[in-house]
Amino acid sequence: MTLEEKVGQLNLISHGPPLNWDNIAKGGIGAFLNFNSAEEIARAQRLARESRLKIPAIFGLDILHGFRTQFPVPLGEAASFNPELSRLASVWAAREASHVGLQWTFAPMADLSRDSRWGRIVEGFGEDPYLGAVLTAARVKGFHEGGLATTVKHFAGYGAPQGGRDYDTTFIPRAEMYDIYLPSFRAAVEAGTESVMAAFNALNGSPATASGWLQTDVLRRQWGFRGFVTSDWSGIAELVGHGIAADGAEAARKAILAGVDMDMMGELYVSHLPTEVRAGRVPEAVVNEAVRRVLRTKMRLGLFDRPDADPSHTDAAFPSLESRKAARDVAAETLVLLKNRNETLPVGAGIRSIAVVGPLANAPRDQLGPHAARGHAQDSVSLLDGIRTRAAKAGVEVRHAPTCDLFCRTIDHLPEALEAARASDLVIAVFGEPQDLSGEAASRTRMALTGKQEDALKALIATGKPVVLVLVAGRPLELNSLAENLSAILMAWYPGTEGGTAVADALFGDVNPSGKLPLSWPRAGGQLPLYYNRLPTGRPPLPNNRFTLSYLDEEITPLFPFGWGLGYSNFTYSNAHIANARLTADETLEVSVTVTNTGHRAGKEVVQLYMRDPVASRSRPLRELKSFEKVSLEAGESRRVTLHVPVDRLGFHLDDGTYLIERGAIQVFVGGSSLAEKIGEIDITNETRRAPLLGE
């Protein structure tokens, strides 16, 4: 290969400007993004095969929660606490995308976030490293099963920007990186992700795109990653903006030396690396190894042998009946019932008429959420349509009034909504965040309901009719006094193509809600960042004592804790047992508990196991989720549930990457949320210390 041909393999270009189609046949482009038409994929691949070396290109797209059939957004998916559903959703997304010739997705997003001001929290799995790691691995496996290579992103620390501001810098101690922010990425590597995307942000003063510690030391030497690293969109060029490169040449040099193999939409590698190599500032061996990583991946994917995309294939083949059923099944388990006063839900026999109000009740595009790939609004079953269809089967009349525009700038149409409410037995109010208020570049300083939504809800409550709030949003929102005055609250996230059907199933009791919060729900935005697994303080909260951990104007606790979620059944825990209370570092903790459905309906419960190291050489979190299992129980049924945790997972990292399991007591908690009751302690009898691996 000539040097220019090598560098061409490291060039990742989007459909549209500045794509030069003539450059493809010259071997100047190794990969593409934002192609979603089989006809154009086939055309570009044909040109790539006409190049001197006939090396095929790889085609990628952001496929986060579906291709044409849209599944719930990843944060909602996390609420299912069901890795099998994460795998299933990814399988379908990959099947549809590969049908039109795509081979690669820029997913899953493994960024842990504790701050819901950050708009991209919707793309990840919430605040917990263990839940995030389990679901990230499930999504990688699902994408693979469906026929797509994966790019886990954004490596690393991107989910913790200062002030919740997208693209801002992050400051995270190394030990916290290892324990909190890196486990999901490591899980993706262990699951076989083919590529990793470097993050936009600067981490502790060093932009991730130029971080040799991240791309080389951690990813390759410590974890043994064998795939390739791509920058994010123009991420290498942005090193100039970060202030660590004077120009494009220096930016390209620093990125390639740090271990970033592919330049996405910067064209700095093709513009500058040949000169940098010939001038001796970048060893050609570094470029060679980057090219080998890309070519090895293309070979593993079979791109040299597989047929090119069939131009006759279109996404119009979807949604299919099968993909719709899968989307409905996944959405059913993502819905989180936050409140249900006096069993307002499910809709009972005494309800003969319903008022469906709110701007998001009939918003089929917005219920898809951000990054909806090829999702079409006309494919969606809106919440209004879903409720109408189900209500008709029950002989329930439905009245509809939108109340206000999507952003609720004015409530000029509130009188119609109030009239519908007064004439009905029950009000279902669908409010929240329009699609454009969530996702990338959607940071918010105020977490309140948009516009005049809160005023509209207060007026609806004042009618005296029971009001059920269905929230369509990409993050928790401030509810203020509404939390006390609403009869029921159902968090629907962005539920996807079959969102209306799934929500109606839950409202009418055809499905028993089983979702649990994958993040803490703040009372006010001023509590952020907020997370359950915080470190203890020498002055824990004490009532009537100002000089302890507290706020003057708000409770210190979340409105709803991590792991919280109600249903139409009640579950009790009894006879918890720790099999062996004395364990060595190479043994496995076994905890069993009897879970009983004391309700009158079949339901699903997420049994959650938390642990705490109360005395250690470093301050350790108050609780950490270490295992969970979702179980289905008939009304009145009891089941013995056994959870296992290798003692090897009960340690923590030091700043140099050393992993330490100390001797001593570990507290054990089991229950249905992060408020789980303590059931006992174990004693770790020996200390284990492992230095980070440093070999290639």
What's this model, at a glance?
Helices cover 27% and strands 20% of the residues. The protein has 696 residues and is an alpha/beta fold.
Rounded to an integer in angstroms, the radius of gyration calculated over CA atoms is 26 Å
Distance between the termini: 25 Å
Please give the order of strands in the largest beta sheet: 9-6-5-4-3-2-1-10
As a percent range, the share of strand residues is 15-25%
3D architecture notes:
The chain is an alpha/beta fold and 696 residues long. The chain is built from 19 helices and 27 strands. The strands form 6 sheets. The chain has an 8-stranded parallel sheet. Strands 11-16-15-14-12-13 form a 6-stranded mixed sheet, with helices on both faces.
Topology, pairings included?
Layout: H1 3-8, E1 11-14, H2 21-24, E2 31-33, H3 38-49, E3 58-61, H4 74-78, H5 83-99, E4 104-105, H6 129-146, E5 149-155, H7 174-181, H8 183-191, E6 195-198, E7 202-203, E8 206-207, H9 212-222, E9 228-230, H10 238-242, H11 248-258, E10 263-264, H12 268-278, H13 284-300, H14 321-334, E11 336-340, E12 353-357, H15 383-394, E13 397-401, H16 414-422, E14 426-432, H17 453-461, E15 467-472, H18 482-485, E16 488-491, H19 499-507, E17 571-578, E18 582-583, E19 588-597, E20 603-612, E21 624-633, E22 638-646, E23 652-653, E24 659-661, E25 664-671, E26 677-684, E27 688-690
Parallel strand pairs: 1-2, 1-10, 2-3, 3-4, 4-5, 5-6, 6-9, 12-13, 12-14, 14-15, 15-16, 18-26
Antiparallel strand pairs: 7-8, 11-16, 17-19, 19-22, 20-21, 20-25, 23-24, 24-27, 25-26
Helix pairs in contact: 5-6, 5-14, 6-8, 11-12, 14-19, 15-19
